[in-house]
Prior knowledge:
Two copies of one chain form a homodimer. Chain A has 439 residues and is α+β, with helices and mostly antiparallel strands. Chain A is 33% helix and 25% strand.
Amino acid sequence: xxxxxxxxxxxxxxxxxxxxxxxxxxxxxxxxxxxxxxxxxxxxxxxxxxxxxxxxxxxxxxxxxxxxxxxxxxxxxxxxxxxxxxxxxxxxxxxxxxxxxxxxxxxxxxxxxxxxxxxxxxxxxxxxxxxxxxxxxxxxxxxxxxxxxxxxxxxxxxxxxxxxxxxxxxxxxxxxxxxxxxxxxxxxxxxxxxxxxxxxxxxxxxxxxxxxxxxxxxxxxxxxxxxxxxxxxxxxxxxxxxxxxxxxxxxxxxxxxxxxxxxxxxxxxxxxxxxxxxxxxxxxxxxxxxxxxxxxxxxxxxxxxxxxxxxxxxxxxxxxxxxxxxxxxxxxxxxxxxxxxxxxxxxxxxxxxxxxxxxxxxxxxxxxxxxxxxxxxxxxxxxxxxxxxxxxxxxxxxxxxxxxxxxxxxxxxxxxxxxxxxxxxxxxxxxxxxxxxxx
Amino acid sequence: xxxxxxxxxxxxxxxxxxxxxxxxxxxxxxxxxxxxxxxxxxxxxxxxxxxxxxxxxxxxxxxxxxxxxxxxxxxxxxxxxxxxxxxxxxxxxxxxxxxxxxxxxxxxxxxxxxxxxxxxxxxxxxxxxxxxxxxxxxxxxxxxxxxxxxxxxxxxxxxxxxxxxxxxxxxxxxxxxxxxxxxxxxxxxxxxxxxxxxxxxxxxxxxxxxxxxxxxxxxxxxxxxxxxxxxxxxxxxxxxxxxxxxxxxxxxxxxxxxxxxxxxxxxxxxxxxxxxxxxxxxxxxxxxxxxxxxxxxxxxxxxxxxxxxxxxxxxxxxxxxxxxxxxxxxxxxxxxxxxxxxxxxxxxxxxxxxxxxxxxxxxxxxxxxxxxxxxxxxxxxxxxxxxxxxxxxxxxxxxxxxxxxxxxxxxxxxxxxxxxxxxxxxxxxxxxxxxxxxx
Lengths: 439, 439
C-alpha cells in the first residue's frame, strides 16, 4: 500500500519526485514524439504522441494481460497473438484514439508495428502495439508511421518519464512507481483516468525490469500482482476495450529471490493502481474499502466493488457527506443479488476507524457525524471551484497533494477471505470531462 | 410505451393533466398531512408527509413485490409478512426517512400501523407500512403517530393526487398513470428519483383498481407487469433497501377479461417506469435501449442495463455527444464478463434509427455525427443553467416538457429474445443533488 504520508505542494515538486522514480532499468530505451492530425470522423485538429519502449536485445521474458471486454481493440487482438512469439523487442504506443472496431483496424496496427520494427532493426512480430483514446475512430496511420523514425531517434536509456508523459489522455499527471531490489529494479508506468474497472488488466501499464525472471515465472508473477491491484479497483465500473498490462525483463541482472521479486512487483502494481485512482477523472477522494471475514474472495471483492461503484455513495463522499446509509445499501444490493445466502447479521462497519454499524443497526449520533465529516475532509484532494463559464468544471491542481484515502472497513465475521478494493468519488469534474470528451 | 408526442409547456399544464389522471377507482380513499420534525441524528428541522391509502372495505385481492436488497427496511420486513394475511385495508406511507437498520425499526413501523389501524377502525395486521428517504436514521415516531388522525380526517374518494404528492422526496413532480377498462380503472402512482435499479420492485409504487381480480391472479399479473417495466429500468444502478410495489383491488367492478386487465396493468407499469426515469435526479435525457435477437432474456436485459448504467455513456448523452464508442464498450463489458460465448459478430447498432455499427465495424462520418447530435438534442428535457452559487446545479423546470427518448437499437441476430430497457443520462444536477442530499 502506498505511503499515506507522502505530500506534494506543487506540480514542480511532484515532477521532481517523478524524475527520481524514472531511472530506467538496464537494457531499456524509451522515446516519444508528438505530431498533429485530424480525425477522419470529425474535422477538428488534434495532437497525438507516439511512444516506443525498446529493449536493447529482444527478450523471451515477457508477460501480458488484456481486457475481458468482448469488443477488444485491434492492439489487444494482436497483443494476444504476440504471447506465443519467441521474443519481444519493443512496444509501440499511441494515445488519443484506441483503434477499436475501426475499419481495417488490425491491418493498421500491424503496419504500425512493421514501421516501428523497421526503424528498430527487428521483426514486426517482435513489436507489441498499444492504443488508448476514443473508441470507434480510425488511427491516423500515415501520420503515425511518419512520426516513428523521430520517436526512435529520441530513444534514450536514462528515464522512463518521456513514456509516462507520452501515453496519457485525460490524466492530470504522469504515473511512475519503482522498487529497487538486489542491484536491479522494477519500474512501472500507467495511463488511466476513466473507463476504469479493469478485468484481468488495467488501461495501459508497462512494467520494466532488468531482474532476470524467466518467462513462465514472470507470467505467473504478473497474474498474482494484477489480481490484488488492478483487479481490485474501479473508477467508474466501465471496463475498457483496450486494457493492457505488459511486463518485460531485460534479464541484465541476476534475480536471487523470486519471492522478493513477487513482493516488489505486487508493490509496484498496488502503488500504480492507487495512482490511477487518485488521478481518476474528477476524483476528489480515493476510497479504500477493506473487506474482511468474508466467506470467499468473490464476496469480499464484490462487496468492495459494489461500494466504490455506487453512484450515490460516490456523490456523498464527494460532498464530504457521511451518508453511511448508502454504504449499507451498496453492500445489501450486491449480497441480495449475487450471494443471498451470506449471513450479514454479524457485520461491523467502520469509516475512518470509527464503528458506525453493528448488530444489524446503525450507531449514529451528532458526535459520530462530526467525526466522519472530519475524516472525509482530511482525505479530500481538492474542492471544486466555480467554473469560469458557469458550467465546465476543471480540477484546480495538476498534482496529487497527498495520498490519504477515505478508509472503509467491512468485517462480515463470516469466513476467512479478505480483499482491499480501491475506488473514487464522483464529481462535477467527472461530468464535465465526460459530457463532451471528444470535443 | 408512453406516447412520445405528449408535450407540456408549464408546471400548471402538467398539474392539470395529472389531476385528470387522478380520479380514484371506486372503493378507495386517500389522505395526506405534513408535519415538522427534527431527526435525532442531526439537529436540523425538516418536514415529513404522512399519507394513507385506505379501502372502504379490507380486501383479499392484494399483491406486493419487494426489494431483493439484503438489508431491507423495516416496512419491507413487515410488508412481506402481510402477504399471508387474509385481507389488507390500508397502506400508511411516510417520506424523508426510510427506516432501514434503525434501532427498533420494526417495532416503530408496527406501532405506526397500529395507530393508523385505530384511526381507521381496522386491525393493525391489515395495514401495510411504507417508508422512503434517508437510510439509517430513526423515524420521528411520536410526531408521525400524532399526525395520523389528521391524515385520516383528510381522506377523500375523488383524487389520488394528495398521495402522489405526499410520497415524493427529491422528485420534481408527482407521477400518476391510469387506464380505464370495462367500466373500471387502474390508477397507479410512483415515487422514485434516485437509488433506482429495482430488482423485483421499484422504489414505491401503488396500483389501485376497482376491477375484481382475485388475489392469485392479481399477484401473477403484478409479477408479469413488473418484469417488463420496473425490472427493466435503471437510473443509477443502486437498488434501494425500500423498493415496494403494491396492487390493491376493491373488487367493486366485475372484470370480464383477465388478459385485457393484464395489458392495462402492463401499460400503467411501463408508463410509470418511464415517468420515474424521466423524473430521475438530474435527468436531461431518457434513454430507451431496445435489444433484439438475443439468445436469452438475461443477455437482452443485461446488455440494456449495461448500456444505461455506464457512467461514461451516460455523461456523453448528457452532453449531446454521440460517443458511440462507449456504447460498444458497455455491450462488450457485459458480454465479456457474463456471457463470453455470445456471438457479437452480426450485431447491428442504431441510434435514433440510424445504423452506426455493423459487421464488427463502426459506420461513422461527418453526416452521421451531425444526425446523431440532432437526435440527442431533440430528446433533451432541459439544458443546465449556471448555478447562482457557481457550484450547486438545480433543474430549471418542474415538469416534463416532452416524452421523447434517446432511442438505441441493438440487434444481435443471435436468437429470439428481446427486451426494452429504460435508463437516463448523468448530469451536474445529479451530482449536486447527491453530494449533500441529507443537508
